[in-house]
Amino acid sequence: MISYGKQTIDQEDIDSILEVLRSDWLTQGPGVDKFEMDLRNYFGANFTSAVSNGTAALHLAGKALSWNQDDIVITTPITFLSTANSIVHNGSRPDFVDICPKSYTIDPNQVEEKVKIYRSAGKHIKAVIGVDYAGHPCDWSSLRQIADKYELQLINDNCHALGASYLGDKQYAVKYADLVTQSYHPVKHITTGEGGAILTNDLQLDDKIKLLRTHGMTKNPEKIEKSDGPWFYEMQVLGFNYRITDFQCALGSSQLKKLDHFNKKRKNIADVYNDSLKSAEFLKTPQLNDKIEHCYHLYPIQVDFKKYSISKINFFKCMKSYGINLQVHYIPIHLQPYYKTKFGFKAGDFPNSEYFYNNEISLPIYPTLSKNDQMNVIKKIKKLLNG
Ligand SMILES: Cc1ncc(COP(=O)(O)O)c(C=O)c1O
Predict the structure, then answer these.
(1) Among the four residues 169, 171, 220, 248, which has the most C-beta atoms within 10 Å?
(2) Which CATH number covers residue 165?
(3) 299-318 per-position pLDDT tens digit
(4) Is 159 a pocket residue for ligand 1 (Cβ < 6 Å)?
(5) Is 191 close to ligand 1, i.e. is its CB under 6 Å away?
(6) What does the alpha-carbon distance between residue 87 and residue 61 come to, in Å, rounded to a whole number?
């Protein structure tokens, strides 16, 4: 079965894990520090905290930014549940802004409109979470301008865009967002099994995150008021156990070395899809612009099924019968029963996102997808759409 995404693990990755398993530290050892340093170097961040997964990273981002029940936080409907759930888990009110129909990322013009609407009602938006959907960076310079103008916090849910470029810069994420969150789930660009991190250039935020990820406790003598002795630790805030293990981090460091190579493979696969599918009249491949370099965590196509004699459901089923397991990213979050019931969102609220969802299909893309398998996927798509 060909799936839409999967991990790439080699002998070097396996050896790096075994080395940790034979060492004294399975968790809270040097592997975590090393992975955090490797992330800092690759992404150009001053500070990094590796955590247990990308969902934990988002939760801690909101905690570190002190979101509470009086706050409204905005994100896109086209993202994984965790992005919006992190707002709710912090007790704040989630709201959405529709996507731009070309980039499929949050539309900065509509962000500004929404800020103004809330302001005229005497309300204040606390933060915006942009999502670099599929590997296409958001319009970060516009989002930063809006954040500065209206004093909003800005978070980049960067889970899809490890190695993408914005304005020619691979280290763009921490330059625009106050906090950047990543995930290393197996379908992502690099994996630690489960895992994630928060990147920032803000020392105070990083201090808070490091405290929160391990029960809110510190052993740092400089931060403890009065110590009873060398065993002493102090709990200063209510935190969590969101730590990651050393063997996961060893895998992360080993994978990170190969990220550029993985992304080259993804780009080659995307080029083949772009070229092979451009002649399909009612099928849109991801749109690019000269501000960004896409890194193709996903390869989302838009198919206007109304113009073809096959429905999306039957297209999916037929592809599965050919051994090709497609996916859809994502069901707009405002249409999830929890969000409809608890916050009153409804169909029609974010039309670009809903239109996108109706037409979206994610094609297989991962570094080890063979040319033969990819050509088979393309052949089957053409057969179903032309048949
Ligand atoms: C955009 C986005 N945000 C957050 C997450 C959550 O990451 P994790 O699965 O590591 O908790 C994911 C993972 O699927 C994601 O795609």
Answers:
(1) 248
(2) 3.40.640.10
(3) 999 999 999 999 999 999 99
(4) yes
(5) no
(6) 10
Residue with tokens 């803000």: 202
* pLDDT at residue 120 in the model: 97
Note the pTM of the prediction, 2 decimals: 0.98
Q: Does 65 share its domain with 181?
A: yes
Q: Tell me the C-alpha distance between 224 and 213, whole Å.
A: 18
Among 99, 160, 183, 297, residue to substitute to test ligand 1 (most atoms within 8 Å of Cβ) = 183
| C-alpha 309 – ligand 1 centre gap (Å) | 35
- Round to whole Å and give the CA distance between 114 and 98: 10
- What integer pLDDT is reported at residue 226 of this predicted model? 86
| Ligand 1 pocket check for 160: Cβ under 6 Å | yes
Provide the residue range defining the domain that includes 155. Answer: 2-256
Tell me, what's the pLDDT at 132? 98
Are 129 and 74 in contact by the 8 Å Cβ rule? The answer is yes
Average pLDDT estimate for 208-237: 94
End residue of a domain, out of 207, 239, 256:
256
Ligand 1: residue whose CA is nearest its atom 15: 80
Can you give the CATH number for the domain in which 338 is found? 3.90.1150.10
Map residue 65 onto helix, strand or coil.
Answer: coil
Q: Does the Cβ of 52 fall within 6 Å of ligand 1? A: no
